[in-house]
């Protein structure tokens, strides 16, 4: 049991260290590509990599399990990342990262509502922490002396956090099926890509091949496809299987710290006193709520 816990925590930590910089890569790619183009190429590379590592078909034991994989692909691959990528076109990468850190709070609420008997009752401390986190989100949304709120990107990021909570519970359910993690993750990717197809037509999928050949773009796509998608979804799903959805989601609290520092160093994004205070308040409220 202790070995499983250690392996689960290490897998979650590795995932977060990589995911903390995905906002930076996506923000850079948005200079040449639309959000849906980044999303499609990212998971296409990830899907191909998982096939190369585990070239075997996954045969499901029950038809109802297929619907769970479909729902996981729609929420965790298609809808979540579409909302995240569009949010990055409206607001700072550090803003999106911090706002998405409230995903564990949504996960705990959904677990309480949908997994009755498996989760403890939510205490007053939980809701106090949630309120503090929301106050922090409002502060980072202003992010400057002008205090001019641009809600579009921030609202999309909040919706993405709620969607990720639903995906986390579906991942926990998939883990209980007992299938190999790589094969299960690949099946989720397949449905995610399938659900993306309508979005390609809606958002005008017309990538410029010459932009794909640029070394910086190629590096960022490989980072997102091989590292942040193929590897990280496997390690994340493994962690959820080992230590549970809520305990794994706690590691999301580390993402804003990684992203804010990276955004300042790489993208030269400003870190105002208000944004810094909002980050601390959001993380503090989230941790208080989880404890």
Automatic annotation (TrEMBL):
The keyword Nucleus does not apply. The chain crosses the membrane at residues 36-54, 66-83, 95-115, 122-142, 148-167, 188-206, 218-238, 250-267, 273-289. It is found in: Membrane. InterPro entries: AA-Vitamin_Transporters, EamA_dom, EmrE-like. Keywords: Membrane, Transmembrane, Transmembrane helix. The keyword Nucleotidyltransferase does not apply. GO terms for cellular component: membrane. It is a multi-pass membrane protein. Its main location: membrane. Residues 8-141, 153-288 form the EamA domain. Belongs to the EamA transporter family. PANTHER family: EAMA DOMAIN-CONTAINING PROTEIN, INNER MEMBRANE TRANSPORTER. This is DMT family transporter. It comes from Zhenpiania hominis.
């Amino acid at each position: 049991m202790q070995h499983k816990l250690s392996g689960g925590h290490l897998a979650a930590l590795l995932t977060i260290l990589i995911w903390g910089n995905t906002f930076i890569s996506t923000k850079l790619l948005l200079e040449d590509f639309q959000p849906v183009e980044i999303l499609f190429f990212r998971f296409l590379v990830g899907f191909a990599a998982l096939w190369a590592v585990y070239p075997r078909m996954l045969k499901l034991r029950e038809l109802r399990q297929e619907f769970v994989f479909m729902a996981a692909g729609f929420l965790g691959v298609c809808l979540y990342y579409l909302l995240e990528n569009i949010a990055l076109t409206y607001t700072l990468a550090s803003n999106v990262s911090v706002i998405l850190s409230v995903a564990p709070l949504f996960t705990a609420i959904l677990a309480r509502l949908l997994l009755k008997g498996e989760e403890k009752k939510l205490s007053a401390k939980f809701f106090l922490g949630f309120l503090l986190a929301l106050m922090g989100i409002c502060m980072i949304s202003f992010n400057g002396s002008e205090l001019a709120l641009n809600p579009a990107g921030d609202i999309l990021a909040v919706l993405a956090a709620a969607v990720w909570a639903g995906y986390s519970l579906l991942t926990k359910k998939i883990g209980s099926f007992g299938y190999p993690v790589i094969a299960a993750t690949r099946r989720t990717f397949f449905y995610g890509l399938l659900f993306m197809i309508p979005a390609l037509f809606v958002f005008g999928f017309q990538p410029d091949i010459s932009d794909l050949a640029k070394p910086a773009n190629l590096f960022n796509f490989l980072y997102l496809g091989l590292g942040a998608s193929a590897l990280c979804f496997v390690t994340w799903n493994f962690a959820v299987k080992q230590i549970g959805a809520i305990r794994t989601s706690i590691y999301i609290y580390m993402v804003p710290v990684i992203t804010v520092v990276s955004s300042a160093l790489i993208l030269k994004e400003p870190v105002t006193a208000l944004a810094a205070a909002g980050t601390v308040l959001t993380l503090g409220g989230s941790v208080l709520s989880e404890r």
